């Protein structure tokens, strides 16, 4: 059994295993010797999930009657599921509000000893950002219903996305452009998704984490220009920063937001980033989960994942 794992033979329920972060969490749990029960929607493709030590249970967060079997006899539950990204057809904020509420109620009914919830940094300060506020509402539900919980609040993921977004990011970097989310005078917290997965896997049985809300981040926040300088230093060539929320993009975003809910949410998130409140207090993270990761390591892993630096990406 992996170092740091417990001898509890009951599975850890994982909601969101087919997503990028959920897949990382699954692998991190298995590396710690934890059996995993993955709650997967009917019809979702599970061919990419490992089979050793992994049980698949079908159910849907929006169908509370389907959740009982998934929660029966587990040592802990973990939810990384989101709907606001609209990764699959039919995804929406209903998953983040109603779906998470159903999970909390199912956890209460089953009497599970711990619910590890993936929240968002500073979500309680952002009522104008719908998917941020959904996390705060779920944290409130966990407390209201008396479910033993750990809420992890990571900053912005600094990683290599897959699909079209990853291709777009790589093309921009090859042209010397880094997409920043804050101007020179405003910093924000970034973290590698692999570090988030590691903390989640540790949180399922770290006794000091129970009942805590824990910020997750890297060793220091960065402004957009500082992120561009860091990426340029790693690539060995100058990079320029383009703001995702600059004047031109802002106008287009407001127009597109009239017809696209996802764009409205993105613009609201961008306005919140400009407030300078999206900065993690990593003291508790360091106490519970070990040394705070360096933002250089997150950026390096991102570039490796995009095949812009040699070597495997581990975060």
- Give average pLDDT, whole number: 90
Structural class assignment: alpha/beta
Low-pLDDT sequence parts: none
The rounded distance between the terminal residues' Cα atoms is 22 Å
Would you identify the CATH H-level superfamily of the domain at 12-155 and 191-216 and 281-289? NAD(P)-binding Rossmann-like Domain
Radius of gyration: 19 Å
> What's the total count of β strands?
11
3D shape: globular
Helix content: 40-55%
> What is the CATH fold-level name of the domain at 12-155 and 191-216 and 281-289?
Rossmann fold
CATH class annotation of the domain at 12-155 and 191-216 and 281-289? Alpha Beta
Strand content: 5-15%
Order of helices and strands: EHEEHEHEHEEHEEHEHEHHHH
Short structural summary:
The chain has 315 residues and is of the alpha/beta class. The chain contains eleven helices and eleven strands.
């Amino acid at each position: 059994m992996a170092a740091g794992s417990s001898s509890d033979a009951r599975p850890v329920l994982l909601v969101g295993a087919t997503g990028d972060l959920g897949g990382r969490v699954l692998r991190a749990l298995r590396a710690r010797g934890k059996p995993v029960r993955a709650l997967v929607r009917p019809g979702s493709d599970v061919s990419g999930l490992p089979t050793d030590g992994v049980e698949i249970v079908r159910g849907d967060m929006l169908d509370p009657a389907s959740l009982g079997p998934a929660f029966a006899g587990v040592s802990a539950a973990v939810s990384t599921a989101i709907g606001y990204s609209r990764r699959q057809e039919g995804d929406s904020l209903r998953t983040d509000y109603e779906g998470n509420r159903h999970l909390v109620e199912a956890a209460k009914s089953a009497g599970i000893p711990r619910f590890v919830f993936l929240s968002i940094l500073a979500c309680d300060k952002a009522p104008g950002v719908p998917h941020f506020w959904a996390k705060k509402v779920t944290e409130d539900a966990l407390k209201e219903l008396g479910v033993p919980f750990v809420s992890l609040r990571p900053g912005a993921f600094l990683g290599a996305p897959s699909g079209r977004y990853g291709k777009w990011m790589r093309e921009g970097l090859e042209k010397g452009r880094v997409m920043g989310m804050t101007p020179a005078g405003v910093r924000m917290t970034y973290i590698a998704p692999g570090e988030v997965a590691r903390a989640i896997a540790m949180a399922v049985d770290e006794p000091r984490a129970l009942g805590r809300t824990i910020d997750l981040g890297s060793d220091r926040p960065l402004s957009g220009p500082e992120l561009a300088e860091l990426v340029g230093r790693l690539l060995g060539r100058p990079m320029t920063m383009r703001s995702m929320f600059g004047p031109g993009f802002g106008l287009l975003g407001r127009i597109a937001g009239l017809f696209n809910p996802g764009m409205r949410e993105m613009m609201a998130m961008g306005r919140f980033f400009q407030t300078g409140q999206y900065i993690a207090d990593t003291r508790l993270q360091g106490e519970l989960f070990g040394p705070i990761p360096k933002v250089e390591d997150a950026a390096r892993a991102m570039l490796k994942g995009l095949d812009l630096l040699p070597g495997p990406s581990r975060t």
